[in-house]
């Protein structure tokens, strides 16, 4: 793991891999590592082990780091994974670098942890005991209402004093929830991200200037230049 200080300088500097992943924080990295173990197990350690922590939704830091440390490295590519948050933040022009942005379709990465069956397993509750799942489901939008899910503030729901925590009566272990979520329970956005990671790690060039049809096709988990 590589941390950036407040001035954007790396500490300590790690050897560049062919694919560098930029993430907002340590919790994002932990969640992504758990999912990677399910979806790309052979690449999980390589890709997540050298992840660069940006310290929040700071896409410009990803660009600055790539320009300083990776732009001249042959074959270097990078993917920056960002929360959508309010959806109004813009992304920087990548200036032709092999740097790509992936923005979650839902507000936060934590939104993809709100899987009642996975939460039950993470808490060690037997499968036949559905009380926790029913309590969780009462706090959530209809499963078919993706618009409501896109706006759901999962960080608040899963917080120590959040509605889901109160509903189950105990703290929710987010990293463990991620680890026990099965591949078929993961949202298509998560599968789309790791399909892109796999492609980039295999040597595919970054999509710095996608066509509008590409952005629409991968919506809500789109990537690339926000000006398209």
Write out the strand line-up for the largest beta sheet, numbering strands in chain order.
2-1-4-3-5-6
Shape: elongated
Q: What is the oligomeric state here?
A: single chain
Number of separate domains: 2
Strand percentage, roughly?
A: 5-15%
- Distance between the terminal alpha carbons, to the nearest Å? 32 Å
Briefly note the structural class of the backbone. Answer: alpha/beta
Rg result: 18 Å
CATH-derived topology of the largest domain: Rossmann fold
Written account of the structure:
The chain has 228 residues and is of the alpha/beta class. The chain folds into 2 domains: 2-106 and 187-218, Rossmann fold, CATH 3.40.50; 114-184, no CATH class. The chain contains 11 helices and 6 strands. It has helices at 26-39, 44-49, 59-69, 116-122, 131-137, 146-151, 154-158, 163-168, 174-180, 188-201, 212-218; strands at 2-4, 10-11, 19-23, 52-53, 77-82, 99-103. It has a 6-stranded mixed beta sheet with strand order 2-1-4-3-5-6, with helices on both faces. Strand 1 (2-4) and strand 2 (10-11) form a beta hairpin. Helix 1 (26-39) packs parallel to helix 9 (174-180) and helix 4 packs across helix 9 (174-180). The longest helix is centred in the N-terminal third of the chain and has 14 residues, at 26-39. The chain is elongated, with a radius of gyration of 18 Å. The chain starts with a strand and ends in a 10-residue tail after the last helix. The model is unreliable at 11-16 and 209-228 (pLDDT under 50).
What's the helix and strand layout?
Layout: E1 2-4, E2 10-11, E3 19-23, H1 26-39, H2 44-49, E4 52-53, H3 59-69, E5 77-82, E6 99-103, H4 116-122, H5 131-137, H6 146-151, H7 154-158, H8 163-168, H9 174-180, H10 188-201, H11 212-218
Parallel strand pairs: 1-4, 3-4, 3-5, 5-6
Antiparallel strand pairs: 1-2
Helix pairs in contact: 1-9, 4-5, 4-9
């Amino acid at each position: 793991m590589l941390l950036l200080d407040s001035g954007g300088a790396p500490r300590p500097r790690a050897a560049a891999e062919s694919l560098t992943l930029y993430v907002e924080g340590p919790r994002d990295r932990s969640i992504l590592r758990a999912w990677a173990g399910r979806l790309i197990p052979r690449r999980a350690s390589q890709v997540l082990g050298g992840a660069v922590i940006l310290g929040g939704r700071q896409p410009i830091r990803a660009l600055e780091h790539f320009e300083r440390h990776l732009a001249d490295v042959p074959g270097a590519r990078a993917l920056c994974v960002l929360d959508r948050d309010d959806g109004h933040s813009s992304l920087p022009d990548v200036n032709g670098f092999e740097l790509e942005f992936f923005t979650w379709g839902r507000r936060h990465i934590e939104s993809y942890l709100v899987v009642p069956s996975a939460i039950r397993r993470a808490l060690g509750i037997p499968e036949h005991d559905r009380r926790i799942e029913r309590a969780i489901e009462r706090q959530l939008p209809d499963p078919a209402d993706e618009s409501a899910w896109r706006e759901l503030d999962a960080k608040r729901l899963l917080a120590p004093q959040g509605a889901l925590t109160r509903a189950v009566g105990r703290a929710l272990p987010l990293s463990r929830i991620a680890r026990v979520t099965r591949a078929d329970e993961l949202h298509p956005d998560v599968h789309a991200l790791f399909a892109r990671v796999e492609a980039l790690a295999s040597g595919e060039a970054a999509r710095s200037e996608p066509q509008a049809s590409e952005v629409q096709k991968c919506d809500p988990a789109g990537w690339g230049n926000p000006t398209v």
